[in-house]
Amino acid sequence: MKIQAIETGHFLWRETDEVTYVEPAVLSDHPELCCAFTTRHAGRSGRALNLSFDLGVRADVLANRQKLLHALGLGHTSLVTVRQVHGKHVCIVDAQALRRGLTGVSADALITTLPEVPLGVLAADCLPIVLYSLQPRVLALVHAGRLGTYHRIVSAVLDIMYSRFAVQSQHVFAILGPGIGACCYRLDERAVAPFRDRFSDWEEFFLPQGEGYWTMSLIRANEAQLCAAGVPAAHVHTAHICTVCHGEHFYSHRAEGRETGRGMGVAVLLSSVVPHDRSTSREF
Ligand SMILES: [Zn+2]
Fold this sequence. Notes:
The structure is a single chain. The chain is an alpha+beta fold and 284 residues long. The chain has helices at 4-7, 58-71, 95-100, 146-150, 153-165, 189-198, 218-228, 253-256, and strands at 11-15, 20-24, 33-38, 41-42, 47-48, 90-92, 109-112, 119-123, 127-134, 137-144, 172-176, 186-188, 206-210, 213-216, 236-238, 263-269. It has a single domain (4-180, 236-272), classed as CNF1/YfiH-like putative cysteine hydrolases, CATH 3.60.140. The radius of gyration is 18 Å and the shape is globular. Zinc ion binds next to loops.
């Protein structure tokens, strides 16, 4: 099945020898940022690109993570990830946190102002969301599944970007990566009821399917949080790539069960606006 975002050029399909990922086209306007959403393919090698330590042999996952960084021209850096728990905790990745180490930290969003510090969130249906401002330079990466969305984690991250880092809403850009689409995200009353109690606009992102079932649009729910926080609609770049419909290319928890692999959304502020050797990794 063709991926519309790739067909339209809105997102670009990148394949190296060992990593295949999609990249938002908006990056051509923002060379200060590097951002990628991995697929399940380890490039032309034909292998799988699981990036979760919980679901594979540690040495293999470590090697896959290194290959990813290398493919992005970030081989000299270390990937920052935390234990994702579908909660609302936001982890500030500053020099002190890096010195202390992030092992054991549970969070579903990461924020940094540091260049050359790649942030990563794992996903297999949940929505990876990149938020950034280039004046001042602040980057956040969010793991927004149903529960993170319920906890309004995108709103929480934007609050911190505004209050702690003096970012103005009109300078924020958002990139919503591949995730389960409303086409495939069917939920029953138990899942919907908490949203009905907490979100006055819940009917904007839940569509009734009859007999006590709804479909949920994680994209619409999170775009609503961006809009409510003043992020300009023209700054929101959404892949609209459903990980279930495109299961041949992306891991899907719902389609394959909890033992499936995990892909990753990764983003980094670059210290130089001329990306070092990224061009060498972009042959097709
Ligand atoms: Zn779908």
